[in-house]
Amino acid sequence: MPRYLRITPELPPPRAYDAAIGAGALTRLAELVRDAAPAARYALITDDVVLELHTERVCEELRGAGLEVQLYSFPAGEPYKTRETWSYLCDRMSADGLGRDSCVIAMGGGVVGDVGGFVAATYLRGVQCVQVPTTLLSMLDASIGGKTGVDTEYGKNLVGSFHQPRLVVMDPTVVWTQEYADMIAGSAEAVKHGAIMDAEYLAWIDENAGALRECDTDVLTQLVVCSVERKSEVVQRDPYEQGERAILNFGHTVAHALELATHYSMSHGHAVAIGMVAEAGVGERLGVTEAGTSDRLRTSLERLGLPTRIPEDISAERVAELAAGDKKSRAGRLRCVLLERVGCVAQPTAAEWTWDLGDRLASLL
Amino acid sequence: MPRYLRITPELPPPRAYDAAIGAGALTRLAELVRDAAPAARYALITDDVVLELHTERVCEELRGAGLEVQLYSFPAGEPYKTRETWSYLCDRMSADGLGRDSCVIAMGGGVVGDVGGFVAATYLRGVQCVQVPTTLLSMLDASIGGKTGVDTEYGKNLVGSFHQPRLVVMDPTVVWTQEYADMIAGSAEAVKHGAIMDAEYLAWIDENAGALRECDTDVLTQLVVCSVERKSEVVQRDPYEQGERAILNFGHTVAHALELATHYSMSHGHAVAIGMVAEAGVGERLGVTEAGTSDRLRTSLERLGLPTRIPEDISAERVAELAAGDKKSRAGRLRCVLLERVGCVAQPTAAEWTWDLGDRLASLL
User: Fold this and answer.
1) Nearest Cβ partner of B236 from A7, A94, A124?
2) What ipTM goes with this model?
3) Are residues A19 and B9, on separate chains, in Cβ contact within 8 Å?
4) What is the pLDDT of residues B202-252, one digit of tens each?
C-alpha cells in the first residue's frame, strides 16, 4: 500500500480590486496604478492602433509621474491574438530584464486585454496586471473577471488562464476614438447583461438607445457602471467559471461559431447580438424560454443598430458543427445557456447552468 | 472623480491533494486517478523515452480499467521543454476534442511534469492535473508544489504558472529504469532539503548514502517520503512563492547559471550540488553562514558521488553574469538564498528570504 502525504496549500485571502470608471479617469492613471499595483517596473502593452491614439501619450505621462515604463506594441486585431504575440511580448520583457516585481498594464481592446493578461499570468509564473480597456466592448465585458487567453487554429481562447487584475481603469470618453460601428457593436454585451440578469437594465438600455448612438458621455458612463456591476456580481461568486459564471456565455455558443465561420471578419459584438437572438429562439422552441423573448431581444438590438439574423450564407448545420468544437462543450456534447425569460436564465437543475443540446442545435436554429 | 466599483472574487476553499508514495503505487494508478481526479477523458502526456519504459503499459492498464485515455508524447530532454512542445500538446488535445472535463496525467521526469503541468494550467484556461514523476529528481522536488512552465531562449522556466495537481503518484521502484548517473544526481535535491530545513535529515542521508547508491527500495522510498514532507511544509505555507518558498532556491542561483553556461549539458542535480557548495561558500565569505558549512555539504554530496566544484572552464564572472539574468533577481539585482548553518536558512530581515548580492557574486565565488 502506498503511503499518503496530504498537501494543503494555504491560499492567500482573496484580493479585492477596483474598477475605476469615469470621464477623465485616464488622466489619473499614474496615481491609480501606483496605489493599486506598486511595482519596480511596468510593461505597458498595447496594439499599434491604440498606441498612436492613446498609449504613447499615456506612456509619457506615466514616465513623467516617475514610473519606470517599458512600452510594447503589436499589430491590432484578432488575428494577432496568438501564442506568437504572447511569446514575442514575454521575450521582449525577458530581454529588458523585467523581474517578478514588475506589473503589466494592458491598454487597448479585448485582444490586448486577453493577450496582455495572459502575459501577466505566465511571465515568470505570474506578475501583477492592470487592465485599461479602451473599447466599449472590453469595458463592458472582457476587462472584468480575470479571463485571459489567446486563440489557436482550433478556436478562440483555447489556451489561457484566470488571472485577476489589481485594478481596472475605464475612461468612457476614449471610446469616441473607436470606429463608430465597433463602438456600438460593444453594446451587445450590455444587452446580454440585461437579458440574463436584469430586465429593468434592458428597459433602461432601450430608453437610452438614442443617446448611446450619439455617444452621450453620461449615458455611456452609466452603461459601463451598470454592466460592470452586473458582471462583477457573477464573477465574484464564481471566479473560475465552475458554475454560475457560465450564464455570461449566453449567445456565445452561436457567436463563436459565427466568428469561426466568417474567419473573424464578423465583429464579436455583432456575433453576440445574432447569437443571443438565435439562442433565445432555441430556448423558445424547446419550451424552456418564454415565447416572444427572441423578438424582444431583436427589438432592443435593432434599436442600437445591431444585426440579429444569421447571415444567409452560413447554414444552421455549419453553425452547429462549429459550435460543437467550442470549449464550452463537454465530452464533445454541445452546451448552451438558455433564458427562462428576459432578465433570468433557465436552470436545467440547481447545479447546472448550461443545457445539453446533444446534436440538436442545427434543427433548433 | 472616477466612480470605484470594488470586485472581491470569492475563491474556492484551498484544495488538498495527496502524494501517494510506495513501491508498486503505479499498479494502482487507475484507481487512484479515478478517485482523486474523475474526468470524462484523460490526456496522458509523456516523453518518448518514458513512453517505452512505462507509459505505453500504463496507458493500456488505464484503458483496461475503463478510463478514456489519449496518449501524447514528445522527444525527451530539456531542449524540448519549450513553448513549441506546449503548443503541440494543446493543439493535439484540441484536435481530439478534449473538453474542460478532461484531466492531464503528466508521466515522466521534471520536463514532462513542467510541460504537462503548464498544458493543464492553460488548456481551456485550466483542467485537472495528476503528476506521475518517474525520476528521483522529480519525485523529490518538481512534482510537489504546483510550479509549471517552460524554458525560453532567455532562460529556464521563464513562462509558466502555478497549478496545483489533484494527485501525485510516486513509485520509487521505477527510478531503477533511469540512467544510474541521472538517478543519483536527483538526490542533490534531498541534500538541499536537509541543508535548508533539517540537519538530522542530512545526517540520515549521509548514513544511508551507500544504500542509496545501491538503489535500496526502502531507503529510496524513505528518501522520497522525507523530502516530500519537508518540501510540502514550505509550499503549503507559500503556494505562490511570495516569501518563504524562496528557500527552496538554495543553490539554484548558481545552478541555473551553470546550466545556461553548459547549454544544459550539465544535469540539474549536478548543477544544484555544485551550486549549494558555492552558495554556502558565498554565505561564509559574507559572514552570514557558519564556517565549515560549505565543506560539510561537499562531504555529503561527494558521498553520493556528486560533483561539488564549478568546472574550471566557467569563470566566476560568467556565472555571475548569467545569474543576474535569472528570474529570481529583482529589479535587475542578483538575489540568493543563504544558509545560517546546516538545517537553517539565514534571513536578512523577518520579511525577506533572499539576500541582495548586488553585483558582488563574482568576487564572492
Assistant:
1) A7
2) 0.91
3) no
4) 999 999 999 999 999 999 999 999 999 999 999 888 888 888 999 999 999
